[in-house]
Amino acid sequence: MPYPKQTNQLYFAYGSNLSLEQMAHRCPDSRYIGRAILPDHAWQINERGYANVVPRSGSSVHGLVYAISAADEARLDRCEGVQTRLYSKTYHDAIFHPARSKFQLFTRDVVHRGGVVRAMGRKFKRSRHFEQSARLQRDMLVYISREYVRQSEPRSEYVDRINKGIKDATSLGVPMDYYEEHVRHIVPGRRSHRVRTPSPFAQQYANAYCPNNHDVLEDRGYGNTHRVRRMESRDAQGHAQQMRYPWWNPTRWAYPVRVFYERPSNFREW
């Protein structure tokens, strides 16, 4: 696919479009060119369960900036629901921190090369000066919902998408402190509220080797990713104890006995 001619239309992303992978899918011609700060606005999740910004004096919203073509802008209009008034196209002045020219890449190239750090190269990872001097940028495109401005909770499918965007944004210079202060109390780092149903095989294993505790797999809401704890399987046979060790051990190295009473951070799923 040929690369489009450069355009002067700058788009400010603050929600799930922070993800370069999503932008590459929605807007194939889009190009990452830096980050920006939108003054006198506050970040929120509205009653539809999606990100939005609302006017608020003294507050600011951080995000990434993309250069988009006319075709990309038309695609964004459809994705954001401009015709149905879910979001409105607005133009605002923002404090723009442009990336240096060698770090301004097409989003599809970033995805093709395996992510932000790999696409930017080792110099980007070690460089503290990958941005140019900040300046005031006029008429930056921002999609804002004017019909839905009530604070609410995010949709479960939206949590993963916006977390991917936060990961890309912080890799590209957006301060993590901003998300910790303004976003994390609304959007968790992972979908901790998700409840998983134990698989039949996992439940059969628990019933066979844990006759005194049939609810071990429902502990903390995890289904087929729980191991059987030693303290709850004292009545199991010797061969069951020998089978249990290689089942949950994620590596070929032996672990101390104390880890039997803990949940390993990198245990293997079934």
UniProtKB/TrEMBL annotation:
InterPro entries per UniProt: AIG2-like_dom (IPR009288), G-Glutamylcylcotransferase (IPR017939), GGCT-like (IPR013024), GGCT-like_sf (IPR036568)
Residues that hold substrate according to the record: 11-16
EC number: 4.3.2.9
Domain Gamma-glutamylcyclotransferase AIG2-like: start-end pairs: 11-90
The keyword Lyase is annotated on this UniProt entry: yes
Gene Ontology MF: a single term: gamma-glutamylcyclotransferase activity
SUPFAM superfamilies: Gamma-glutamyl cyclotransferase-like (SSF110857)
Active site: 80
CDD domains documented for this protein: GGCT_like
Keywords: Lyase
Xref: PANTHER family: GAMMA-GLUTAMYLCYCLOTRANSFERASE (PTHR12935)
Protein name: gamma-glutamylcyclotransferase
Species, as recorded: Colletotrichum sidae
